[in-house]
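Record minuted for completeness.

…
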Amino acid sequence: MEGTITAIQRMSIHDGPGIRSTLFLKGCDLRCAWCHNPETWSYQPQLQYVADKCIRCGSCIAVCDDRVLRLEEKVYIDRDRCSRCGRCVEACVTGALSWVGRQIEACEAVRELLLDRTFFEESGGGVTLSGGEPLLQADFAEEVLRGCLAEGIHTAVESNLTEPWPTIERFLPLVRLWMCDLKVADSAKHRCWTGLGNERIIENLHRLAATGTPLVVRTPVVPGVNDTPEAVEELCRIVADLNGKVFYELLGFHSLGFGKFGDLGMNNPMAGTPPLTSKKLADLQWIPERFGLKRKF
């Protein structure tokens, strides 16, 4: 079974308990305006151009039979006409041009993840599948999780819970911790900012919580979207209504991944939005506490 991934992030401490290795899968059915992993939206490998690495040598232009590259202040790529032949990537001597996304067999992914077994065992960590939306590559994700569990490795999944319940249900025996986003309480506003309503997400949260599997619900607090006490209270009411081993965490919005939009030739709908201040986030933390919601799993 093959899947398409962007990276394996090692020594991660934010994607579950202990030290973890996070496997990022390509493909997502949401288009969150504040996304810091836009390279995971598409299933397909994407051509990335990092201008800071470019020495403007023109090697890529010389080998492009489609004539979709030209040298300006930086290399301009006519992505609509690009045939994705990859000759420019092969010719680039500095790595300014590269592919984001690669095909990998599930067994190979497990082998790469198990290279960090020592850190998992010493810290109580494990493997986390993230994205994008990892459940969109359900067969591949299932095989990777089975391989990790067979080796005694703790498994976690970060999901938007946008898939039908039968898809989620098939993963219940394979996932020891779920980490799921609940971004906006109002469905119409959720659709405006992410491209989809949240009815299925909330329904799946209730079903998942009822299984008793540890569940961390997380909200990225984004300026102008959900950064008011009223918005957080609405979210807390939904989470407090879940029955099970449920935790809730507010995450501060940051723009660290925004440079990827330009590198991939994508439009950034929230360019220039300042990060959420630590004070602003701290001022909102009392609201989940008032609802009796715990932050730590």
Remarks:
- The chain has a mean pLDDT of 95.
